[in-house]
Amino acid sequence: KVQDKKNPIIEDIPDVTIECGVNYQDTTKTGGRPTAIDNCGVTITFTDAGSLTCGQGKITRTWRATDPQGNIATSTQVITVQDSDPFGEDDITWPADLEINGCTQNDAKPDLLNSKPTYVNSDCADIAISWEDEFFSVPGACLKIIRTWRVINWCNANTQNPAYIIHKQKITNKNSTSPVFVSGCTNRTINSPEND
Predict the structure, then answer these.
(1) End-to-end distance of the chain based on CA atoms, in angstroms?
(2) Which residues contact 119 (CB under 8 A, 6 or more apart)?
Protein backbone atom coordinates (compact mmCIF):
# COMPACT_ATOMS: atom_id res chain seq x y z
CA LYS A 1 0.00 0.00 0.00
CA VAL A 2 1.41 3.35 -1.02
CA GLN A 3 0.91 6.13 1.52
CA ASP A 4 1.71 9.81 1.19
CA LYS A 5 3.08 10.98 4.52
CA LYS A 6 4.77 14.11 3.28
CA ASN A 7 3.16 17.49 3.84
CA PRO A 8 2.73 19.80 0.88
CA ILE A 9 5.04 22.74 0.49
CA ILE A 10 3.33 26.13 0.14
CA GLU A 11 4.97 29.42 -0.72
CA ASP A 12 4.58 32.52 1.43
CA ILE A 13 2.64 35.47 0.07
CA PRO A 14 4.19 38.74 1.34
CA ASP A 15 2.22 40.92 3.72
CA VAL A 16 0.51 43.75 1.90
CA THR A 17 -0.96 47.19 2.59
CA ILE A 18 -3.93 48.37 0.53
CA GLU A 19 -6.08 51.46 0.53
CA CYS A 20 -9.50 51.70 2.08
CA GLY A 21 -12.18 50.93 -0.47
CA VAL A 22 -10.14 48.17 -2.13
CA ASN A 23 -11.80 44.78 -1.74
CA TYR A 24 -9.36 42.79 0.38
CA GLN A 25 -11.24 39.58 -0.44
CA ASP A 26 -10.15 39.95 -4.06
CA THR A 27 -6.84 38.08 -4.06
CA THR A 28 -5.73 39.89 -7.22
CA LYS A 29 -5.60 43.06 -5.07
CA THR A 30 -3.59 41.48 -2.25
CA GLY A 31 -0.68 39.79 -3.97
CA GLY A 32 -2.38 36.85 -5.62
CA ARG A 33 -2.64 33.23 -4.57
CA PRO A 34 0.33 31.12 -3.44
CA THR A 35 1.56 28.05 -5.26
CA ALA A 36 2.06 24.74 -3.54
CA ILE A 37 3.64 21.42 -4.50
CA ASP A 38 2.93 17.88 -3.41
CA ASN A 39 3.69 14.50 -4.92
CA CYS A 40 -0.03 13.60 -4.99
CA GLY A 41 -1.62 16.90 -5.95
CA VAL A 42 -2.82 19.71 -3.70
CA THR A 43 -5.80 21.98 -3.06
CA ILE A 44 -5.26 25.57 -1.88
CA THR A 45 -7.81 27.43 0.24
CA PHE A 46 -7.73 30.35 2.66
CA THR A 47 -9.56 31.72 5.69
CA ASP A 48 -9.55 35.28 7.02
CA ALA A 49 -9.54 36.45 10.63
CA GLY A 50 -9.97 39.98 11.90
CA SER A 51 -12.30 42.82 11.03
CA LEU A 52 -12.27 46.38 9.78
CA THR A 53 -13.51 49.45 11.61
CA CYS A 54 -14.62 52.26 9.33
CA GLY A 55 -13.00 50.34 6.50
CA GLN A 56 -9.58 50.17 8.19
CA GLY A 57 -7.68 47.53 10.12
CA LYS A 58 -5.74 44.29 9.75
CA ILE A 59 -6.84 40.98 8.28
CA THR A 60 -4.81 37.83 8.93
CA ARG A 61 -5.17 35.43 6.01
CA THR A 62 -4.19 31.80 6.51
CA TRP A 63 -3.45 29.93 3.30
CA ARG A 64 -3.86 26.18 3.50
CA ALA A 65 -2.50 23.55 1.10
CA THR A 66 -4.13 20.13 1.50
CA ASP A 67 -3.23 16.96 -0.36
CA PRO A 68 -5.56 13.97 -0.98
CA GLN A 69 -4.24 12.20 2.14
CA GLY A 70 -5.17 15.15 4.36
CA ASN A 71 -1.61 16.38 4.86
CA ILE A 72 -1.57 20.12 5.35
CA ALA A 73 0.82 23.03 5.03
CA THR A 74 -0.10 26.59 5.97
CA SER A 75 1.18 30.08 5.36
CA THR A 76 0.05 33.33 6.95
CA GLN A 77 -0.35 36.70 5.26
CA VAL A 78 -1.25 39.99 6.98
CA ILE A 79 -3.35 42.46 4.97
CA THR A 80 -3.37 46.02 6.31
CA VAL A 81 -6.16 48.28 5.08
CA GLN A 82 -5.33 51.95 5.56
CA ASP A 83 -6.71 55.35 4.66
CA SER A 84 -3.81 57.51 3.51
CA ASP A 85 -6.16 60.27 2.34
CA PRO A 86 -8.72 60.69 5.14
CA PHE A 87 -11.97 62.59 4.65
CA GLY A 88 -11.67 66.32 5.26
CA GLU A 89 -13.27 69.67 4.50
CA ASP A 90 -11.75 69.73 1.00
CA ASP A 91 -13.94 66.74 0.16
CA ILE A 92 -17.13 68.74 0.78
CA THR A 93 -18.92 70.94 -1.75
CA TRP A 94 -21.07 73.43 0.12
CA PRO A 95 -24.35 74.81 -1.23
CA ALA A 96 -24.19 78.35 -2.61
CA ASP A 97 -25.95 81.37 -1.12
CA LEU A 98 -29.42 81.74 -2.58
CA GLU A 99 -32.06 84.35 -3.34
CA ILE A 100 -35.41 82.65 -3.72
CA ASN A 101 -38.99 83.61 -4.48
CA GLY A 102 -40.85 82.90 -1.29
CA CYS A 103 -41.97 84.37 2.01
CA THR A 104 -42.04 81.53 4.51
CA GLN A 105 -39.59 79.20 6.17
CA ASN A 106 -41.12 76.27 4.31
CA ASP A 107 -40.14 77.87 0.99
CA ALA A 108 -36.47 77.45 1.95
CA LYS A 109 -36.32 73.81 2.99
CA PRO A 110 -33.14 72.12 1.70
CA ASP A 111 -35.04 69.33 -0.08
CA LEU A 112 -37.26 71.83 -1.85
CA LEU A 113 -34.29 73.91 -2.96
CA ASN A 114 -32.10 70.88 -3.77
CA SER A 115 -29.43 72.73 -1.83
CA LYS A 116 -27.36 70.49 0.43
CA PRO A 117 -23.69 69.70 0.97
CA THR A 118 -22.28 66.91 -1.19
CA TYR A 119 -19.07 65.01 -0.57
CA VAL A 120 -16.59 62.50 -1.95
CA ASN A 121 -13.83 60.30 -0.50
CA SER A 122 -16.10 58.64 2.06
CA ASP A 123 -15.03 54.99 1.72
CA CYS A 124 -13.44 55.09 5.18
CA ALA A 125 -15.82 57.60 6.73
CA ASP A 126 -19.17 57.64 8.49
CA ILE A 127 -20.58 61.01 7.45
CA ALA A 128 -23.51 62.73 9.11
CA ILE A 129 -24.97 66.10 8.08
CA SER A 130 -27.22 68.39 10.09
CA TRP A 131 -28.40 71.97 9.76
CA GLU A 132 -29.96 74.72 11.83
CA ASP A 133 -31.62 77.96 10.72
CA GLU A 134 -31.68 81.48 12.15
CA PHE A 135 -34.33 83.88 10.84
CA PHE A 136 -34.04 87.63 10.39
CA SER A 137 -36.32 90.41 9.15
CA VAL A 138 -34.45 92.68 6.74
CA PRO A 139 -35.48 95.57 4.48
CA GLY A 140 -36.35 94.57 0.94
CA ALA A 141 -37.02 90.91 1.70
CA CYS A 142 -39.65 88.80 3.37
CA LEU A 143 -37.09 86.85 5.31
CA LYS A 144 -33.38 86.25 5.59
CA ILE A 145 -32.11 82.87 6.73
CA ILE A 146 -28.64 82.01 7.99
CA ARG A 147 -28.40 78.24 7.61
CA THR A 148 -25.57 76.61 9.56
CA TRP A 149 -24.49 73.29 8.08
CA ARG A 150 -22.59 70.82 10.26
CA VAL A 151 -20.71 67.84 8.84
CA ILE A 152 -19.01 65.23 10.99
CA ASN A 153 -17.07 62.04 10.33
CA TRP A 154 -18.00 59.76 13.20
CA CYS A 155 -15.10 57.44 12.36
CA ASN A 156 -12.59 59.82 13.91
CA ALA A 157 -14.82 62.01 16.06
CA ASN A 158 -14.63 62.41 19.81
CA THR A 159 -18.13 61.36 20.84
CA GLN A 160 -17.88 63.40 24.04
CA ASN A 161 -16.82 66.58 22.26
CA PRO A 162 -17.33 66.14 18.50
CA ALA A 163 -15.62 68.58 16.16
CA TYR A 164 -17.89 69.58 13.29
CA ILE A 165 -16.95 71.05 9.94
CA ILE A 166 -19.17 74.13 9.75
CA HIS A 167 -20.41 76.28 6.89
CA LYS A 168 -22.94 79.11 6.86
CA GLN A 169 -25.29 79.54 3.91
CA LYS A 170 -27.29 82.75 3.34
CA ILE A 171 -30.79 82.45 1.93
CA THR A 172 -32.88 85.52 1.11
CA ASN A 173 -36.61 85.08 0.63
CA LYS A 174 -38.04 87.70 -1.71
CA ASN A 175 -41.61 87.71 -2.92
CA SER A 176 -41.50 88.87 -6.54
CA THR A 177 -45.04 87.69 -7.34
CA SER A 178 -47.67 90.44 -7.37
CA PRO A 179 -51.02 89.83 -5.68
CA VAL A 180 -53.83 88.50 -7.88
CA PHE A 181 -57.56 89.06 -7.35
CA VAL A 182 -59.26 85.71 -7.06
CA SER A 183 -62.72 87.10 -7.81
CA GLY A 184 -64.19 90.23 -9.34
CA CYS A 185 -65.54 93.24 -7.44
CA THR A 186 -69.21 94.19 -7.33
CA ASN A 187 -70.29 97.82 -7.35
CA ARG A 188 -72.51 98.73 -4.41
CA THR A 189 -74.60 101.83 -3.59
CA ILE A 190 -74.89 102.77 0.05
CA ASN A 191 -77.47 105.26 1.37
CA SER A 192 -76.27 107.33 4.28
CA PRO A 193 -78.81 108.07 7.06
CA GLU A 194 -77.46 111.61 7.32
CA ASN A 195 -77.72 112.12 3.53
CA ASP A 196 -74.04 113.15 3.36
Answers:
(1) 135
(2) 87, 91, 92, 93, 127, 151
pLDDT in tens, 54-98: 999 999 999 999 999 999 999 999 999 999 999 999 999 999 999
Span 158-172, pLDDT tens digits: 888 888 999 999 999
